[in-house]
Write a structure and sequence with these properties.
Layout: H1 4-10, H2 14-19, E1 30-34, H3 38-48, E2 53-57, H4 84-100, E3 105-106, E4 110-113, H5 126-142, E5 156-159, H6 161-168, H7 179-189, E6 199-202, E7 206-207, H8 209-221, E8 226-229, E9 232-239, E10 252-258, E11 265-269, E12 271-274, H9 280-287, E13 293-304, E14 314-317, E15 328-332, E16 337-342, E17 354-356, H10 368-376, H11 380-395, E18 405-418, E19 429-432, E20 437-440, H12 448-462, H13 473-477, H14 481-485, H15 488-501
Parallel strand pairs: 1-2, 1-12, 2-8, 4-14, 12-20
Antiparallel strand pairs: 3-7, 4-6, 5-6, 9-10, 10-11, 13-16, 13-17, 13-18, 14-15, 15-16, 19-20
Helix pairs in contact: 1-8, 3-8, 3-12, 4-5, 6-7, 8-15
Length: 515
């Protein structure tokens, strides 16, 4: 069922959205998508726009309510350890997903700093940044509408110690417009003696999960061919028995139950898509495939701090993941709210929070306490203790942040990692053509539109879509129906409702600067 608040917004635009559909899908094509996270919702938008009858099954009360996100990794600069090509892929994917969900983006730069305690130098990152700048220029040459991260020559900038000292003496401005204006509060609050130079400032923007959820739900509410079943748990999936003589592709029966009903219902689909996030292995077991994967429980924490003096960029302090000196990340939201990561086992990571597959099941088994957190909420004592550790960790580099206050919630969840490499950051989808089954396996949410593209290509190959000629026209030009009919204000109102329902400050549903 569609959230009633969202349904009211979509009602008057639904007919227009449907009238623009290409007539490229066979009328009887039915797809079931298990899981309404970023992957499931994005794939559903892609398929519904093609006229494919698409049903999303999501056990939570709204879509995209999963692991923490805060950052559009437009170049992957957060990760020093991944290959340059992965960074270029992340840049392309982030620009692509930004054009689908523009109202979910907070336009502000990100500051990357190498601490003095670290063995590496900021100069080590400059060749990669130049490659990313050139890749961004190439994307703009291919399509001028890809110019969503500002001027390519300003994709990154460097700041010396002398420049930061000069900026620290300037007055902050209420609405930063230039890079220097954004850097004034950094110069005032960052301990300039604990970092190496130059500081690197990149146009990697904030990504707001509440606004992303609002965008996806509003988009799907406008498509007649999209059916969203929230508060719905899938109990079982099984193959539909068919005569071998007709040489048909396998079909699937989905047994599901709404949380407010004791009755189990069934739906039959021509193609099954597993987008269950960290629980994809549960469906793999039902289907009968046994891939290798890992699952990691992670958390970020919410704090309130009124001492910044205005709007500030995101601040990243590099560190080696999982060590006591892991990366620190301070992500700003409006009105003094912040999301904090500390990539240590006492803050964001957990000593026993990484699990991999066993022989008997495709689903890695997280400890029961983390599943309980995901399903029922955190133990408040543990939450407060870890939240305070996060504040103290950031305060090592931003001393005034020690006055921040913990809040009563966190952004947390399980993250799937396909294969056996826990440093993997770019992945999309696995296809099982012979059984009409696909599994979305996105490590980063920015990969979800690419996963949707691969599934569309699979449908063309299988004859579930008649022709490729006009089926991808809206995709190529990002002519998504809801973008024509919605406004930034619409997304804000829906996002505020979602934030409140999930127990977060409504300020976190807003952005400091929209696209």
């Amino acid at each position: 069922m569609t959230h009633p608040f969202i349904k009211n917004y979509a009602y008057n635009t639904q007919v227009k959205a449907e009238s623009d559909l290409p007539k490229s899908a066979l009328p009887k094509t039915r797809v079931g998508i298990l899981g309404g996270g970023t992957a499931g919702a994005t794939i559903a938008i892609r398929l519904a726009a093609l006229g494919i009858k698409t049903t999303v099954f999501e056990k939570k009360t709204s879509l995209i309510d999963g692991p923490p996100m805060c950052h559009l990794h437009a170049g992957g600069n957060l990760y020093r350890e991944i290959p340059d090509q992965d960074c270029i892929d992340l840049l392309k994917q982030c620009i692509d997903i930004l054009r689908l969900y523009p109202y979910s983006i907070d336009v502000r730069p990100t500051v990357f700093a190498v601490p003095t305690r670290d063995d590496d130098s900021p100069d080590d990152l400059l060749p990669r940044l130049d490659k990313l700048t050139n890749a961004y220029k190439d994307l703009i040459e291919q399509d001028h509408n890809n110019k969503v991260l500002g001027e390519p020559d300003n994709y990154y900038q460097l700041y010396s110690h002398e420049q930061m000292i000069t900026l620290s003496k300037k007055e902050q401005v209420t609405e930063p417009k230039t890079q220097d204006e954004w850097m004034i509060p950094v110069a005032k609050h960052l301990n300039l003696n604990k970092v190496k130079y130059p500081l690197i400032v990149v146009q990697e923007y904030g990504w707001n999960i509440f606004r992303l959820s609002a965008s996806a739900q509003l988009a799907l509410a406008q498509y007649e061919h999209a059916n969203v079943l929230t508060s719905t748990e899938v109990k079982q999936v099984s193959k539909v028995e068919q005569s071998s003589a007709n040489n048909q592709m396998p079909k699937w029966k989905i047994e599901y139950q709404n949380n407010q009903s004791n009755t189990t219902q069934t739906a039959e689909v021509d193609y099954l898509i597993n987008a269950c996030g960290f629980q994809t292995g549960i469906v793999d077991d039902m289907v009968g495939v046994k891939p290798k994967r890992m699952v990691e429980f992670k958390a970020s924490y919410i704090a309130h701090w009124q001492g910044a003096g205005g709007k500030i960029p995101e601040i990243i302090i590099y560190g080696n993941r999982g060590t006591p000196e892991g990366m620190a990340q301070l992500t700003p939201y409006p009105n003094g709210f912040y999301q904090i990561h500390g990539m240590t086992n006492s803050i964001t990571l957990f000593n026993d929070g990484l699990a991999d597959t066993a022989e008997q099941t495709a689903q890695p088994q997280l400890p029961a306490k983390y599943l309980n957190y995901i399903n029922n909420g955190w133990d408040q004592q543990v939450l407060k203790a870890r939240g305070q550790k996060a504040i103290d960790y950031v305060a090592e580099f931003v001393p005034a942040f020690k006055n921040a206050n913990t809040q009563n919630n966190a952004l947390f969840g399980g993250q799937q990692i396909p294969g056996e490499d826990d440093t993997l950051r770019v992945a999309d989808v696995s296809l099982y053509s012979h059984i009409s089954y696909a599994r979305a396996e996105n490590v980063k949410a920015s990969s979800t539109l690419i996963a949707a593209d691969e599934i569309v290509a699979e449908f063309i190959k299988l004859g579930l879509i008649c022709t490729e000629h006009d089926s991808n026209n809206h995709r190529k030009h990002h002519q998504w129906a809801y973008l024509q009919n919605s406004r930034n204000e619409d997304i804000s109102k829906i996002a505020q409702v979602l934030a409140k329902e999930r127990g977060f400050p409504t300020d976190m549903a807003n952005v400091n600067h929209g696209i």
